[in-house]
Design brief:
Helix content is about 25%, strand content about 35%. It is α+β, with helices and mostly antiparallel strands. Strands 4, 5, 26, 27 and 28 form a 5-stranded antiparallel sheet that branches.
């Protein structure tokens, strides 16, 4: 029969174990239990429990918990900043890539802004690394990438300032000398802005190519751009633009000034089509903006459209007898061409009754209706485009791949027409929009997807 050894430990207010070798015979007594088992009673000394140690551990634990929570909050804070700055970094990267792609993709470089943003990224990475006490390779990689981007910006600025700027200044000086030379040989002087005290167009300057369209898409060959011909106060520097791969016109973008146009930063985008809820789309590319109102060829029904950019409402008027069978020479759907000059708003078109010859109508802007009509003798499909200056209609035609010619003029003031020859250079062969703006005396052309403009010189009266 196996005997079971049972130890009963009895102490005062607290208990503790003693090593076996310290068990003295006076401290241990033994006896047999009721069922023959051996019972040993051990009397231990009265030892106090180390409560102060437990309290110290508890305090340390609370302090560590608070520190961990603080670091968690820091990580969450930096994570939020990182998400925002990563988004900015993506935008910054695209801007740097644009700068690297060549000088033709920008007009003004804000190098200091780039440096400020890069310093912000550098500071964030440093803080994250120190806060997390991390030596992960990703931080070193990010830091190296930011430093490389900073060096690239410095190189681009150095390149721009030491070469492009000098070349540009010298080019401007040379251009001014040539223009002065030419001015001395020709009898002309430009009238003041808004004035018609001149003898008509003398010549058209060289094409100034701003850049590829804001969508940076060479397939977007159809479209138009320009300035408001009679801007509201505060909108004198505003530009508009739209283009697409076909003549369908569905939106217009507005830019605060020329810099934002080039940097592709619209302040507003007006949608002319939203599913089945709204369909104010147009056709063709010969639209203009006047008094913050867009005038364009309405798609359905075939008519002239008017979109108020302030109220964001549209209306249309059918042009009496206008036909949609006679477009300009370069492309289809150019049936209604809107133009503005120092004297008002116009639309050109053709009719079946005129056998496709170009008709000019003066638009009463308040009534949005034709108030006067003039019949010309030129066949509309032989014309590449037309525009108005001081009540005179000018029509163009193609001479060759690189040359365009203003070959026809109709003076609405005298109701007289004449054939003229004013040749000017095309940037590329195919263009769909050409309009004169009386606010700066320039022609605006959308030439095969590019923004192109021309200065216009006038004869003396």
């Amino acid at each position: 029969m196996h005997r079971i050894l049972v130890l009963l430990l009895i102490a005062g207010p607290a208990y503790a174990w003693l090593p076996v070798e310290e068990w003295g015979s006076g401290n241990v007594t033994g006896s047999l239990g009721e069922f023959g088992q051996c019972i040993c009673k051990v009397y231990l000394p009265d030892t106090s429990f180390p409560a102060d140690h437990v309290e110290s551990v508890q305090i340390s634990s609370n302090r560590l918990t608070a520190e961990v929570e603080l670091h968690i909050k820091k990580v969450l804070h930096f994570k939020g900043e990182l998400v925002i700055l990563l988004s900015e970094l993506s935008n910054l990267t695209s801007r740097v890539e644009m700068l690297e792609s060549g000088p033709d993709k920008y007009i003004k470089l804000d190098f200091e802004l780039l440096r400020v943003e890069l310093r912000q990224f550098e500071t964030l990475v440093t803080h994250l690394k120190a806060s997390l006490n991390s030596s992960l390779p990703i931080f070193d990689s990010l830091y190296t990438e930011i430093r490389n981007m900073s060096m690239t910006v410095d190189q681009l600025e150095s390149y721009d300032k030491s070469n492009l700027e000098v070349i540009r200044i010298e080019f401007v000086k040379l251009q001014r000398k040539l223009e002065k030379c030419q001015d001395e040989q020709e009898d002309f002087s430009n009238a003041a802005i808004g004035s018609c005290k001149h003898g008509g167009i003398l010549r058209v300057g060289k094409p100034v190519v701003s850049q590829l369209n804001a969508d940076l898409n060479s397939n977007f060959k159809f479209g138009g751009w320009g300035k408001d011909s009679e801007p509201l106060p505060g909108s004198e520097h505003m530009y508009f633009y739209y283009s697409y791969s076909d003549p369908l016109f569905s939106r217009i973008r507005v830019y605060a000034d020329y810099y934002r146009l080039i940097m592709r930063q619209p302040i507003r985008t007006h949608e002319l089509y939203i599913n089945s809820a709204k369909d104010w789309r147009g056709l063709g590319n010969n639209y203009i903006v006047r008094n913050n109102t867009l005038y364009y060829q309405f798609r359905s029904p075939f008519s002239m459209g008017k979109y108020d950019m302030n109220k964001q409402t549209a209306e249309y008027r059918v042009v009496p007898k206008a036909s949609n069978r006679f477009s300009y020479h370069y492309s289809d759907s150019q049936n209604l061409d809107f133009a503005a000059d120092e004297k008002g708003l116009y639309v050109t078109y053709a009719t079946e009754e005129s056998n496709g010859k170009l008709v000019l109508g003066k638009i009463n802007e308040a009534a949005f209706a034709l108030e006067d009509v003039w019949q010309t003798s030129i066949f509309k499909q032989s014309v590449t485009n037309a525009f108005m200056v001081c009540g005179i209609l000018y029509a163009t035609r193609s001479v060759d791949v690189q040359t365009e010619e203003i070959f026809y003029a109709y003076d609405t003031n005298k109701r007289q027409e004449s054939y003229i020859s004013i040749k000017f250079e095309k940037f590329q062969d195919f263009y769909v929009s050409l309009d004169y703006n009386p606010r700066d005396q320039k022609l605006y052309m959308f030439n095969n997807g590019y923004y192109v403009s021309y200065s216009v010189k006038f004869k003396t009266a």
